[in-house]
Amino acid sequence: MSAPPALLSVEALAVGYGPVPVLHGVDLRVTTGTIAAVLGANGAGKTTLLRALSGVLRPTAGTVRFAGEDLRGVRVEHLVRRGLAHVPEGRGVIGELTVEENLRLGALWRADRADAARALDEVYHLFAPLARRRRHLGHQLSGGERQMLALGRALVARPRLLLLDEPSLGLAPRVVAQTMALLRRLRDDTGLTVLLVEQNVRSALAVADQGIVMALGRVVLAAPAARLRDDADLRHAYLGF
Ligand code: ATP
Question: How many domains does the chain have?
Fold first, then answer.
């Protein structure tokens, strides 16, 4: 049987900050319509990986293929148009803009204005607190609402691949659970593919199909999430619990 198609495949990716190398030959594959959780200690290179995939950082070596297309040298705007959305750590909500204005930024590159309006309605349907607070400014929102807004803004672009950096950071356990449930629903109902960086390993593995463990700028394990959930020895060796 042939392997299921990968929406994202990364080979021998090397990235650094100036002369300082951080990723040393990262390989990974994310199958269409699945959630992959990128796990690992602080400083392992998880955020750097997402920055390289979304075009914020330029790789020094290696290849990134997204939906079969080589992304080397491609501009960020093109990546967004091709269906790649990045929700960065800290979420990037603009405090001086209203909820609605923040959401509309997600549709900036969309040519199909009618569908962009539909996507906006869907986000309000998905996140009722945002609908109630659409005229409020970003900085007036709670942490959980800001997380919703960042996710909502990414979804307005109708991404095929969502890169999510630490969505649970600073959120109450109930809100984390809601966020994970939403990701599962989007995967199951719309075929969304997600690459999820998380410190909250248990929550991430509960929703993920694949676990990718990084250490010191390398992928040291890529395995079905169920194996990492069920195999205590493996979990202990790679995740320390
Ligand atoms: P964390 O969970 O703490 O965010 P991480 O796995 O996401 O960890 P990165 O943030 O990707 O790790 O950091 C990987 C390495 O790159 C670290 O050694 C870090 O000090 C370094 N680094 C991160 N950002 C920069 C930067 N802007 N300039 C220089 N070095 C950086």
Answer: 1
